[in-house]
Design goal:
The chain has 2 domains: 32 residues; 143 residues, Ribbon (Umud Fragment, subunit A), CATH 2.10.109.10. Helices cover 20% and strands 27% of the residues. A hairpin with a 7-residue loop joins strand 3 and strand 4. The longest helix has 32 residues. The protein is elongated and about 75 Å long.
């Protein structure tokens, strides 16, 4: 005669986990109900994971990183017409929260609202910070009388004009396009309010070819 000893686990019951199925007679159990239950459980888990992935993606796009299409030639040769880039919208509030008194840096490529028509967006490079005096002499940039080297410029896109000096007000910035010959920027329409700068361009992801065209922006 065989005796089956029932094992007891103090403090643990079937009601503690809905996925646990208690089997009283292992010989007669076919497993069919467990199989169907398992498939439905896996499906629910998959749908839940997809839902949360979509929510996280939406939050990232809304609050952190946004894809943007470049239109025009004002940032050539760094950025070309129809390039696709990612813009980090969280970096400046984060820097400010961490105590950085100048979260927007000289040399940053930024996406901004056009001051004369905020329904339009422009992409430019910050060259003048609040409190500084900006002047361009024969195409060379001077800030507070000091020459600023701009290694990102290409000689094929330089302009040799002279403008300024311009005093940059508090909470405003002086911006230029890298294509100095063909850029509508602070030389034409003045300073950009800080509140109109809504993100920093950080990465170009399209077009895929040439491959070296893809990567971080500086």
């Amino acid at each position: 005669m065989l005796f089956r000893k029932e094992q007891k686990y103090p403090g643990i019951g079937a009601e503690d986990d809905r996925d646990i199925q208690v089997i009283d007679d292992p010989v007669s159990w076919s497993g069919e109900s467990a199989g169907s239950s398992g498939v439905w459980g896996e499906t629910r888990s998959l749908l839940r994971d997809v839902f949360f992935a979509i929510v996280i993606a939406v939050l990232i796009v809304v609050f952190v990183v946004q894809p943007v299409r470049v239109e025009g030639q004002s940032m050539m040769p760094k950025l070309l017409d129809q390039d696709r880039i990612f813009v980090n919208k969280f970096i400046y509030p984060l820097r400010e929260w961490l105590g950085d008194k100048e979260p927007i840096k000289r040399g940053d490529i930024v996406v901004l609202l056009y001051p004369d028509d905020p329904s339009k967006s422009y992409i430019k490079r910050v060259v003048g910070l609040p409190g500084e005096t900006v002047q361009i002499e024969h195409g060379k940039l001077y800030v507070d009388g000091r020459f600023i080297d701009e290694p990102y410029l290409d000689s094929d896109y330089l302009s040799y004009e002279t403008t300024g000096p311009t005093q940059v007000k508090d909470h405003h910035y002086f911006v230029l396009g890298d294509n100095r010959r063909n850029s509508s920027d602070s030389r034409a329409w003045g300073l950009v309010p800080e509140k109109y700068i809504y993100g920093k361009a950080i990465f170009r992801y399209y077009p895929f070819l040439p491959f070296e065209h893809i990567g971080a922006l500086d």
